[in-house]
Design a protein that fits this description.
Strand order of the largest sheet: 11-12-7-13
CATH superfamily of the largest domain: Ribosomal protein L6
Strand content: 35-45%
Number of strands: 13
Structural class: alpha+beta
Shape: elongated
CATH topology of the largest domain: Outer Surface Protein A, domain 3
CATH class of the largest domain: Alpha Beta
Order of helices and strands: EEEEEEHEEEEEEHE
Length: about 180
Amino acid sequence: MDTSTKSVSASVAIPEGVRMTVSGSLVRVEGAKGRVEKDFSHTPAVFRLGDGGLVIEVPGRSRRSKALLGTIKSHIEGMIVGVTKGYTYRLKIISSHFPITVKVEGRRVSIENFIGERYKRYAEIVGETTVKVKEEDVIVSGPDKEAVGQTAANIENACKISRKDPRKFLDGIYIYQKEVGLA
């Protein structure tokens, strides 16, 4: 029984300057902007490094198998973009009532004087992500799209307001731009 007819496969080209290693279902991509690794052990996919590319095989020929193959391929292509160009999210600090102070303290972001509160709010920085505060902007950048997005979401969620009218109290830190390329 030929197993190649019972699965769907696709290949991802590895560009110049990018190094990719595969050990089981762990895919590691390294480039000029950093390193990103992702574990695909929750999927039935099989990875093989070939000449100039990575071959991904998913067992089955159903729509679900093809969709899973496309998703895995997109994740790996995003990892390659991350290590060659990087990802940047820009957030805006908006305060109409009390001036908000944002600082980076180690591996977390400190938010002070948010709507006049006496205590600090904190947001965790995920992975190899870097956070810079420039006047009214918070710039979150790094090679891993998921880590950059989660860090930006953590900062945004640290400023959630409950029990106040959101039309009147607009204070907070909000994502306003997502881009490819490090800032």
